[in-house]
């Protein structure tokens, strides 16, 4: 597997992520109050097509520019999720940033975004350490792609007006806490 891997670890307790704060054991009484501060540990994957595009735009320091852009995106999302109207502070921690120089075994990347999402969700589940206590475990995985994706509507019409896709209500399930953009 030809990949480039780097990650950052959160400051402080890495085991206090979203899973640890939101999990409820069977038979456990309902909590009187929900935590006011949540952490979403995130993995971001850059596929070979986006990396190729980035390399043509930033030939001198492609990896540095990819890292800078991903961090800017994570920071922008974090700003949105720290709005007081949400009632909770939500922090995003980048646990893994990986540029996929080639297609990894088990990850098929079709142009149909629904199929791409299904494949990515399955693949990321095999990559993610199962224990929340593992310092490399993440709560949510995101793949940024350079493919020109499309969606097939129920009517059969194909549309290329696609920005991204994630399962509805999937954040709290290990198998569907994933996004394709």
TrEMBL record:
Name assigned to this protein: Peptidase M12B domain-containing protein
InterPro entries: ADAMTS_ADAMTS-like (IPR050439), Peptidase_M12B (IPR001590)
Domain Peptidase M12B: 38-181
Transmembrane regions: none
An example Gene Ontology molecular-function term: metalloendopeptidase activity
Entry GO CC: extracellular matrix
Any coiled-coil regions, as ranges: none
Biological process per Gene Ontology, one example term: extracellular matrix organization
